[in-house]
Amino acid sequence: MTSEVPLHNSLLFRLLVTSVLISLVSIGATAWLTVRGTTVAIEQERGQALADDATIQETLEGFAATHSDWKGVERTVLDLSRSTGRTIVLTTRARQIIAASHRSAAERLPPNESAVIDPLHVAPSKAGSADQASRIDPRAVGPYRLPAEERAKLRQVARDEVDCLYDKTGVRAHIVEEASGRPTLRTTRTSGEFIPACRSKGLSMPTPTEVAALAELTGLVRGCAERHHVRLPEPLTITIGFRVDGDDSMESPAAVDDCVEEGRREQLTAYVAPAALLFVISPPRSAIAAFDLSPAGTLRVLATTGLVLAATVAVTAVIATRLVRPLRALAHAARDPSGSHVRIPVTAKDETGYLAAAFNELSERRQRTDEQRRVMVSDIAHELRTPLTNIRGWLDAAQDGLAETDSALLSSLQEEAELLQHIVDDLQVLAAADAGTLRLRPEDLDLRGLIEQTVSAHRATAHAGGVEIAVHAPDGLSVHADPVRLRQVLGNLLSNAIRHTPPAGRVTLSARRVAGAVAIEVKDTGSGIREADLPRVFDRFWRAEQSRSRRTGGSGLGLSIVRQLVRAHGGDVSVASRPHVETVFLVRLPS
C-alpha cells in the first residue's frame, strides 16, 4: 500500500531537511566560534600573564607579612605554580634558593629578578592604610594582633554601633575585620554625617595589646627623631591608625610621619620574613596554529563538511525510518478493512512504542466491549424471550381451548407481564445511567426510617423463606439522597440477600457514620460468593450460578443497578464474602 502523504509533508523528509539545516548552522557556528575564540585567547594571554604575576607577588607578600621566616613557603610556591602554569623561584638577596617549583629552573636563574618580596617596602597603592604614602603591607601587624578576648569585646561594641546607626538613621552598616582583628564599620554612605551620633569610645580606644605595642612604637619614634633631629610634639601620642596627634604649629609633619614609618619597620622586622628575590619564568610559548586557506586546506574543509553532512543525513534517515515504521503500521491497522482487532508489535520503548502499546490496549478494550455487547444482546434476548414465550404459550393454549381463561391464568399472565416490565425498567435505568441522563431528586432523609420501610416491604418474602431480618441503625442518622433510588438500592440488596440465604438464616441491615460518609451494610449468612467471582458480581446479566433459572436467580441486573445508582449519588459499593459463612455488601454515601 503506497503512502498517501506528499513528500514535502512526510515526516522522514522533514527530519532530513531539519538535520541538514542544523548541521550547516552547527558547522558555520563552530567555525566562527573557533576563529573568534582564537583571537580572544591571544588577546587575553598577555593580560592573564600580568594578572598571574600580580597574584604570585601578592600571595608571597602576604605570606611574608604573616610569617617571621620563609619556612613552609614551598607548598605555597607549588600551588601558585600549578594554578598559573609558571615556574616560580624564591631566593635570598644573595640568590640562595629558598623555594622553587622546579629544581631545574633554580639552576638557571635569569640575570634580573621579577620582583622583590619585602612586606615592609611594598608599592604605596598596596599598603591600603589610611596614610596612602605608607609602604608597609597592611597584613603585617606583628605585636598589634589582638587576642580572641579583645576581638570579641570590640566586635560586640561594633554590633552596638551598627544597631544604633540603623535605629537613628535607617542606614545599614556591616562590620569589616582588619588584619589585626580590629573591627571597623563600612556603609554605602559617607560616615561623617551620621556615624558620630553612634560612635562610642570603646571602638576608637586602643586595647591593652595595642597600648603596649604603641608604647614600644613611641620609643622607636623618639629614637628616630633624635637621630634625624626632628622635633616631636609633647606629649607624643600615636593613635591606632599610626598618626601623631599634634597642633598646627608642629614642625615638619612629614618628617614626623617618616619617623613613624621607620619606627614601624623597626618594630615589625622581627615579625615578618626577610626580603627575598622573586623569579617568575614563563613556559615557552607554543606557536599558534594558523588557518590554512590554501586550495588544499579549502578542499579539506569542504571534504570534512561533506562527511559531516553525509553522516548526519545517514543517521537521520536510519532514525527517521525507525520512527516512521511503527506510525505507518498504526495507520494500516487503523484502516484495516476487515474490521478485525489487529495488534501492532511493540519494538521500541520510546513515544512510538508507547503509542503502539496504547493502540493495542485500545484494540483489546474494543474487542472486549464488542464481546460484552454481543453477550449482553444475547442475554437481553434470552431474558425477554422467557416471559414472552410463557405469555404466548398460555394465550395459544387459551385460544385452542386447552386452558380456561380463569383468574389463575390471568394472574399468571399478569405475573409474566410484570417480570417483563421489570426487566425493561431495569434496562432503562442502566441506559440512563450510561448516558448520564439519570436524574436524582435528593433530599435530607432519616436513614433508619428508610431502612425500616424497605425491610417492611420484604419481610413477608423473608418470612416465607424462613429468613430473619435485623436492623441496626441509630436514630437521627440522616443522609442527602433520592429516597426512591436509595430505597431501590436497599431493596435490590435485601432481596438478593434473602434469595441466597437458606431457611433459619439471618440478614442484617446496619448503618453508621464514618469519616466524611455514611456506611450502610447488608449482611447475610447465605451461600456466599467465591473469591474468583467477586470481581464480576456487579456485571450485567452475570450470575454466580449459571444453572439457576430466571425465577430463582433474578435477571442479573439488580447489582449493576445498585452500583450505577450509588455512583450517581457520589458514593461507592463493595462486596466481601466468605462462602457459607457471610456476605457483606457495603454502600458508602457522602454525608
Automatic annotation (TrEMBL):
<dbReference type="GO" id="GO:0016301">
    <property type="term" value="F:kinase activity"/>
</dbReference>
<dbReference type="InterPro" id="IPR003660">
    <property type="entry name" value="HAMP_dom"/>
</dbReference>
<keyword id="KW-1133">Transmembrane helix</keyword>
<keyword id="KW-0812">Transmembrane</keyword>
<protein>
    <recommendedName>
        <fullName>histidine kinase</fullName>
        <ecNumber>2.7.13.3</ecNumber>
    </recommendedName>
</protein>
<dbReference type="InterPro" id="IPR050736">
    <property type="entry name" value="Sensor_HK_Regulatory"/>
</dbReference>
<keyword id="KW-0472">Membrane</keyword>
<feature type="transmembrane region" description="Helical">
    <location>
        <begin position="12"/>
        <end position="35"/>
    </location>
</feature>
<feature type="domain" description="Histidine kinase">
    <location>
        <begin position="379"/>
        <end position="591"/>
    </location>
</feature>
<keyword id="KW-0597">Phosphoprotein</keyword>
<dbReference type="InterPro" id="IPR036097">
    <property type="entry name" value="HisK_dim/P_sf"/>
</dbReference>
<dbReference type="InterPro" id="IPR004358">
    <property type="entry name" value="Sig_transdc_His_kin-like_C"/>
</dbReference>
<dbReference type="Pfam" id="PF00672">
    <property type="entry name" value="HAMP"/>
</dbReference>
<dbReference type="InterPro" id="IPR036890">
    <property type="entry name" value="HATPase_C_sf"/>
</dbReference>
<dbReference type="InterPro" id="IPR005467">
    <property type="entry name" value="His_kinase_dom"/>
</dbReference>
<dbReference type="InterPro" id="IPR003661">
    <property type="entry name" value="HisK_dim/P_dom"/>
</dbReference>
<keyword id="KW-0418">Kinase</keyword>
<keyword id="KW-0902">Two-component regulatory system</keyword>
<keyword id="KW-0808">Transferase</keyword>
<feature type="domain" description="HAMP">
    <location>
        <begin position="321"/>
        <end position="371"/>
    </location>
</feature>
<dbReference type="InterPro" id="IPR003594">
    <property type="entry name" value="HATPase_dom"/>
</dbReference>
<dbReference type="Pfam" id="PF00512">
    <property type="entry name" value="HisKA"/>
</dbReference>
<dbReference type="Pfam" id="PF02518">
    <property type="entry name" value="HATPase_c"/>
</dbReference>
